[in-house]
Amino acid sequence: MAFRPEAGCCLPQKKRRLLRALTSKRRQLVETRKRLLARVKVHDKLGTADLFTDMDRDLRTLLGDQIEELEQRIEQTIATDCELAQTATILRSVPGTGPVDSTMLIAEMRELGQITGEQAAALTGLAPIAHNSGTLRGKRAIGGGRRLLRHVMFLAALVAAHHNPDLKNFADRLRATGKPHKVIITAVARKLVTIANALCRSRQKWAPQLS
Fold first, then answer.
1. What would the mean pLDDT of 140-151 be, rounded to a whole number?
2. Which one of 3, 57, 93, 186 is most buried, counting C-beta atoms within 10 A?
3. What angle do helix axes 165-176 and 147-163 make, rounded to 10 degrees?
4. Nearest Cα to 104, choosing from 8, 204, 20, 189?
5. What average pLDDT does range 187-194 have in this prediction?
6. Average pLDDT, stretch 75-100?
7. Pick from 128, 117, 122: which is nearest to 194 by CA?
8. How far is the C-alpha of 62 from the C-alpha of 66, rounded, in Å?
9. CA nearest 20: which of 63, 90, 84, 68?
10. Contacts of 52 (CB under 8 A, 6+ apart)
11. Which residues contact 146 (CB under 8 A, 6 or more apart)?
12. Which pTM was predicted?
């Protein structure tokens, strides 16, 4: 609210609301599938997996089909809106940003491209915040923001740190200075968000930096 006092004064456009509902349902089903697979492993260790083999297989198939159906609906929703389709194309041009990451950014961060890089990092909870009290007093740490986006950008950063030439070099420089892995991935995620924000503002696809 400090960054954009007018935020929340109006609902996002209908297509973006639909996209948010679809991505939310997909996330719910993915989490359900993860829990199912975890339970299957537990039954394997207990020697009781045979009791539920058919049920678990059918449920896993059902979840997979529903997730695939949602992903198709998400792609159709984006494809039928020129602005969303262009934004998705821009975001996916960045090595390390895939369909899930780009869709989450579009659905959960309608401010993308209309704010500064620092504001984008803060909204995703990737901006370092100085702590003036408690056990973290005198230190800076990330926090706040939109937790779901932060989680997605961490996963995207793990890929980008290896497959995006610019961000790989950036990560390698931090690694050479002895920075911990989590600090490196957080920094890469923050850069990834600021890059996405800048590209959406300029409406340009990603291009590697010349050095």
1. 73
2. 186
3. 90
4. 20
5. 93
6. 93
7. 117
8. 6
9. 84
10. 40, 43
11. 108, 109, 123, 124, 125
12. 0.79
